[in-house]
Amino acid sequence: MINVAIIGVGNSSNLHIPFIEAADELKLTHVLERKATKDNSVAKDKWKHLEPFTVVNKYEDILNDSSVQLVVITTSNTSHYDLTKEALKHGKNVVIEKPITPSSEQALELADLATKNDLILAVFHNRRYDGDFLTVSKLIKEGKLGEISSFESRFDRYRPTPKSGWREENAPGSGVLFDLGSHLIDQAVNLFGKPQQISAIVQNSRQKGDLNVDDSFLVHLHYNNKIPLTFTAGASVLACFNDQLRYKVSGTEGSFLKYGFDVQEAQIKDGLKALDTKFGVDDKSAYGTYTSSDLKTETIETTKGAWIDFYRNVAKSINKTEPLAVDPYSAALTIRLIELAHQSAKEGRRIDIS
Fold this sequence. Notes:
By secondary structure, this protein is α/β, with parallel strands linked by helices. It has 2 domains: 2-124, Rossmann fold (3-Layer(aba) Sandwich); 127-305 and 335-352, 2-Layer Sandwich (Dihydrodipicolinate Reductase, domain 2), CATH 3.30.360.10. It has helices spanning 17-22, 42-46, 59-63, 80-89, 104-116, 131-141, 176-192, 264-269, 308-318, 328-347; strands at residues 2-7, 26-32, 54-56, 70-73, 93-97, 121-124, 148-154, 197-203, 216-223, 229-235, 245-251, 254-259, 288-292, 297-300, 351-352. Strands 14-13-12-11-7-10-9-8-15 form a 9-stranded mixed sheet. Strand 5 (93-97), helix 5 and strand 6 form a beta-alpha-beta unit. The longest helix has 20 residues, at 328-347. The protein is globular, with a radius of gyration of 20 Å. The relative contact order is 0.16. Residues 138-352 form the Gfo/Idh/MocA-like oxidoreductase C-terminal domain.
């Protein structure tokens, strides 16, 4: 059994606890909650069904506890680098919320440190385990789409008013490109590897709040394949549609179209357990559509979403029985592409990627 300490009790932690609870090889033993007292603890209130676990106020208490094998960091982006570095220096395996760090230089440093110390550093790119992404990945691997020419991945919403919180403050790693864009770009890297060029529009489209904090983006990743491929990652907060486009993929043998978001986050909020047979199952009305080169159309059942597989893989990687799926070097590449997207938007040009 791998003893787990979770750092932070905010909203992000709610996306980790259900899978730490459900994974056979993991056990929650410690929580860092800086403002907790003997009589008042958010962790004890939210996760009392997982007791006994120890709530501490100081990070050092976790770092110096030899029983803790895995540290899960769910705090704000600006804290990721320091917390992760200290954990790795103290011999702890780490799961870190995306984005790994606000800079690719920091990300590469942490990846090198984990490798040097023979430790696992896994970035929570759980969207690799979305049912819709698993579906489109399967179609590509099976060759049903042929050579891919265009791949559009979107995460649009209608939020005309900014939310309060650190994600919309002018700080390193803030803005929607670091927040949602890191997921979409990670999917591109996972499917197609490193692109050759990048072009982007990154902006505050609402013109509200701090105008230096982006709320929308359109990023084009250009691949110089035999059939040239453009991967488009997009997000808007002014998309007022009942059915939001998620994927639009075209290739030499067919196309795939999918609307609606993966169900797992909503199911967590509704209290559905990760091991429930309904967890991760898409509604039939939201299934995607495949059109072949002879223009015949068929409905494609959405593969069951499996965020739990992220944590199962982490456990197996710690136990040396399976390679790490989301390695920190691919996460560092994602951050580098985000940096270049910001540069492209600022300079108004397409940038070569070395």
